[in-house]
């Protein structure tokens, strides 16, 4: 069965959904190909379930820190897991499928791979209702690759044979293990250490360096202290050199080496959270002259560099999300998906006669360029305390040659902190470009710090001069009053 559409999107996660929706909005016919669940990693195995697992512990901690509130006691693990299941739809993606239908996007189930220029071969899962054999889709205009990323297992002897958890198994677990070893001190490792400690697991976290090494040092230190206070055995500067699991489903033993020597740690489960890589190996990139073992490099219009051009020199192959290797976060991938969909609609949509994009640097170009990926990446780590950041760290800014001054403030000294909780603590820091006197980066560490991030993001993206920002009066008594303190510390 061969079918033809104007645009074909490979991958129906949130990134592919955004690209497909934007492209179809101008009247282009769009099909999205998905081998698993519509909604992708974020909806079923990442953002939604992980934050659901983390929320009850945060609420309990806030209650315990608030005078006059009865101690809520231990979490009901079964109830937490049941709430997680409700939030993920228990693996039912019919609601997501209906959304695609509502915006006029066709869903083709199966594994999609390129087999030539503007050609996508789809192989349905064996035995599925869609299993009518492999068929071919033709794109009149463009193909957008949004295949995401996959977890990486480091080459530790015995690790693969031990059948460890990855982030998928950790967020989809049907019961809470009595004990858990986590390998990796990044976002997934720290969040899952927090969640499973809250749920009653005895957690050991092994990291080769400090926690959250991509963030400001004070952020990683705060999370380290909090995890240890919660009972997590955090081992920094350590490596797992061997893994053994004699029985399937039985206890797993890891050999840990650090500055103190070598020790074996045995637990019910092992979670590997050492990173992810773009899922390009089975996308058929070799059939269009591209490497299969590297991210899809794109320009800021999300057109794939190195791919051939269609008639008139217009690009036909686009990519967005984790598969590009640009910024591996769902919200940034959705942003790239919106850019890619708008670019395709502009180049090929029925209302513009196949016009070219505006020239780079022009005011109109800003609508079609993924510039936030360069200087305004946002991230929230939902540990306790939360870590929220936008833009570079101080070290990254200095390495890039920016003349920055770090302005920090203790959040516990803000009036709104004491109202929130007598134990409220945290730290906030902004990076000021001293030549232009605009904020280029910010980090907030504290309870619900993620809710303070967007104000900083607007300041960074809008390049708001500090002289104007001083007139943005924060409400009292809120923790956001820290913005007034930043100005005072800077000397305004």
UniProtKB/TrEMBL annotation:
This is Dihydrolipoamide dehydrogenase. The keyword NAD applies. PANTHER family: DIHYDROLIPOYL DEHYDROGENASE, MITOCHONDRIAL (PTHR22912:SF151), DISULFIDE OXIDOREDUCTASE (PTHR22912). Belongs to the class-I pyridine nucleotide-disulfide oxidoreductase family. Residues 379-483 form the Pyridine nucleotide-disulphide oxidoreductase dimerisation domain. Gene3D superfamilies: 3.30.390.30, FAD/NAD(P)-binding domain. InterPro entries: Class-I_Pyr_Nuc-Dis_Oxidored, FAD/NAD-bd_sf, FAD/NAD-binding_dom, FAD/NAD-linked_Rdtase_dimer_sf, Pyr_nuc-diS_OxRdtase, Pyr_nucl-diS_OxRdtase_dimer. Its cofactor is FAD. It comes from the Bacteria. The keyword Kinase does not apply.
